[in-house]
Design a protein that fits this description.
The protein is an alpha/beta fold. The protein folds into 2 domains: 3-135 and 303-321, 3-Layer(aba) Sandwich (Rossmann fold); 141-299, Dihydrodipicolinate Reductase, domain 2 (2-Layer Sandwich), CATH 3.30.360. Helix content is 40%, strand content 23%. It has 14 helices and 11 strands. The protein has helices at residues 13-24, 26-33, 48-52, 65-68, 86-95, 105-110, 112-121, 138-143, 160-172, 176-185, 194-197, 200-213, 233-241, 303-320; strands at residues 3-9, 36-43, 60-61, 75-78, 99-101, 126-127, 151-157, 244-255, 258-269, 281-288, 292-299. A 6-stranded parallel sheet has the order 3-2-1-4-5-6, sandwiched between helices. Helix 5 (86-95) links the parallel strand 4 and strand 5. The longest helix has 18 residues, at 303-320. Bound molecules: L-homoserine (HSE). L-homoserine binds at residues 134, 159-161, 188-190, 196, 201, 300-301.
């Protein structure tokens, strides 16, 4: 059976989850893809995590070119996070005829047009299912089975860290700082959690949802955005008295030809399906003019759940390389 070689940039939370799934489910994956999928090079600054997983020096490198310019590598997974050097690495990989998979919402949202155009120019695939909603296959749904719809509205709970904080503060009266630390320890939060709590991470994800569902690319810094850092226990108690929960909501609504969008904490009535989405779970509530209302629900953060979507994208590409 042919082997498809993957180069992994970054053995952090998602890189580790991706590696573990490829090991744990290797036989199911090769049977389904019709090829073996092997991580043959891993770029990182620090090899501690990689050694813990049993990787050896032969696979590990600190030189990006060992992955990006490696003639044996078919697919590059960019999982280092942040905008740079991640974007430059992805463009370089595409320009060296490598397919690219990434969970990096910040980098894809910041340069969506350029990354997409570079992939098209080089005739390579560029997939980023894990960038929105972790394990939830919402981008695939929008671009495949739902592609015959005109989308009317998208509502999303798109950040595991903030949803975890709001849930733990609201249900158990815990303090904001304690819960944030817990979310960081569980691997939900970004390296700098400002992106989570100020809604920037959600704006990045809304940008990608709008680009795919409405074919409108709005740069994340042009999306009106408010986070949860000013929410207090009293606000959560007030919401509860009104039979509501506070959720950080990403919203895009088509009004005639105009798309109205933004990210902010909202009172969600307990009767709305999004009110039952708690902790690190995410959900995307879509309305299509043919499909009607749909809700996609699942783990929006964490190593193995997010790795699940990365592996799905790798397999989708690997199947075309048989
Ligand atoms: N920091 C992100 C979150 C990770 O909490 O949802 C997943 O994108």
């Amino acid at each position: 059976m042919k082997t498809v070689n993957v180069g992994l940039l970054g053995m952090g939370t998602v890189g580790t989850g991706t590696y573990k799934i490829l090991e744990m489910n290797a036989s199911r994956i090769s049977k389904s893809a019709g090829v073996n999928i092997k991580i043959t090079k891993v770029l990182d600054k620090n090899f501690a995590r990689a050694y813990e997983l049993g990787l050896t020096d032969e696979t590990l490198t600190t030189d990006p070119d060992d992955v990006l310019h490696n003639p044996d590598i078919d697919i590059v997974v960019e999982a280092i996070g942040g905008i740079e050097p991640a974007t430059t690495f992805m463009l370089d990989a595409m320009n060296h005829s490598k397919h690219v998979v990434t969970p990096n919402k910040a980098a894809v949202a910041a340069s969506y047009d350029k990354l997409k155009a570079t992939a098209e120019k080089n005739n390579v695939k560029f997939l980023f299912e894990a960038a929105v909603g972790g394990a939830i296959p919402v981008l695939n749904a929008i671009t495949t089975v739902l592609q015959g719809n005109e989308f009317v509205e998208i509502l999303g709970i798109l950040n595991g860290t903030t949803n975890y904080i709001l849930t733990q503060m609201g249900e158990f009266g815990l303090d904001y700082d304690d819960v944030l630390r817990d979310a960081q320890a569980k691997g939900f939060a970004e390296a700098d959690p400002t992106a989570d709590v100020e809604g920037i991470d959600v704006a990045n994800k809304l940008c990608l949802l709008m680009a795919l569902a409405f074919d409108e690319y709005v740069k994340p810094d042009e999306i009106p955005t408010m986070g949860i850092s000013k929410i207090e226990k009293d606000d959560l108690a007030l919401a509860a008295r009104q039979d509501c929960k506070i959720k950080l909501i990403a919203r895009a609504t088509k009004k005639g030809d105009k798309l109205i969008y933004g990210v902010k904490p909202e009172f969600i009535p307990l009767t709305h399906p999004l009110a039952s989405v708690d902790n690190e779970f995410n959900a995307i509530y879509l309305t299509g003019n043919a499909a009607g209302e749909l809700m996609f629900y699942g783990k929006g953060a964490g190593s193995v759940p997010t790795g699940s979507a990365v592996v799905g994208d790798i397999m989708q590409i690997a199947k075309t390389l048989k």
